[in-house]
Specification:
The protein is an all-alpha fold. The chain has 11 helices and 2 strands, in the order H-H-H-H-H-H-H-H-H-H-H-E-E. The protein starts with a helix and ends with a strand.
């Protein structure tokens, strides 16, 4: 019932965004499945080697998950009136498109290296790969326009939720930005770990167990960070910041290792994509670290109380309280209510 009411009160641009995000996910999944099926049928050695021959399957997995994850971001952003997450979805869609571009060049090189069937298979998948990139590029432009319309539609309601205090509003923006970045961290860290394990490592490598353990540890840390942010736990946020610094060192080490002459054979075919993914991971970590410090500095200034007032009503645009919490944590009447 609550979901149906939220859909009825959703702006037209929001419903269009959700529909387009669903259509994009279906189109990308269909195109990626076609590519994978063609390669599996025509090339017998797809899973013969440990790394390069699995490239098509890994790209398929990343792009399919990215499409579904993007749909989750868009629907969640529209349902909650979260303009930061909607704008972030547009950037995430752009990132997914760049992954598809990397896939195009790497898969072309890999397929054409097969002198027996490569030149037969590549023309069959080339147009499909280009179509996948085109769908993402076109939809990113459309989402950009719709995001602007939603920014206008949701702007007043967000003002009524947070109140007129500019300091509280800035803190709320920092809070929502960090929540969004934690979601992106989940996708980026998980995608990097899975790609690195399957494309680069072997089960006999010393790094294999460490990288496998990296996945559940990372997810636990992200959940802990979200809990600490909601509860304004200083100790938890300091722990998270410390672990983020450790993650930065980890990704820098991984990037340097890719260009170690002793490791050249292991990374040769996957180095461009893995380097790009590592750089994106470092950018996301840096942004998360900045927002975590900003949110930590905002603890104790009334934002937690304000969020508790509106908790459970963020998808209901009409049930807004007639007061807000100022920077000192005191309730004040909302004259615009």
């Amino acid at each position: 019932m609550a979901i149906s009411e939220s859909l009825q009160k959703m702006p037209l641009a929001g419903r269009v965004c959700c529909c387009f995000a669903a259509l994009q996910a279906l189109a990308v999944i269909g195109l990626e499945t076609s590519i994978l099926v063609i390669v599996l049928q025509k090339m017998e050695n797809v899973f013969a080697s440990w790394s390069s021959d699995k490239g098509v399957a890994i790209y398929f997995l990343l792009l399919v998950i990215a499409s579904l994850f993007g749909l989750f971001l868009m629907v969640g952003g529209v349902m909650n009136g979260d303009t930061i997450q909607i704008i972030g979805f547009c950037l995430f869609n752009l990132f997914a498109m760049t992954l598809a571009i990397f896939r195009f060049y790497q898969v072309r090189t890999w397929i054409q290296a097969d002198i027996f069937v490569g030149f037969e298979v590549y023309p069959m998948v080339k147009n499909i790969m280009v179509a996948s990139i085109g769908v993402m590029a076109g939809m990113t432009a459309v989402f950009g326009i719709l995001a602007y319309l939603l920014y206008i539609a949701f702007g007043w309601e967000i003002y009524k939720r947070v109140g007129a205090d500019l300091k509280i509003r800035r803190m709320y923006v920092n809070y929502r930005t960090l929540v969004f970045l934690l979601k992106i961290d989940f996708f980026v860290f998980l995608g990097f770990a899975v790609s690195y394990i399957i494309l680069v490592l072997k089960s006999s490598d010393p790094e294999f167990g460490i990288t496998v353990a990296f996945v559940p540890v990372t997810l636990s840390v992200l959940v802990l960070a979200f809990w600490g942010l909601r509860r304004e736990s200083v100790a938890t946020m300091w722990t998270f910041i410390f672990l983020l610094c450790g993650s930065t060192a980890y990704f820098v080490y991984k990037c340097a290792r890719m260009y170690d002459p002793k490791q050249e054979a292991k990374f040769l075919t996957q180095r461009p994509m893995m380097t790009y993914y590592t750089v994106i991971s470092l950018v996301v970590i840096s942004a998360t670290l900045h927002q975590a410090v900003s949110c930590l500095a905002n603890f104790g200034y009334g934002l937690k109380e304000r969020i508790e007032i509106t908790r459970g009503k963020r998808s209901d645009m009409e049930q807004i309280q007639d007061y807000y919490v100022n920077a000192a944590g005191d309730r004040r009447m909302n004259l615009e209510g």
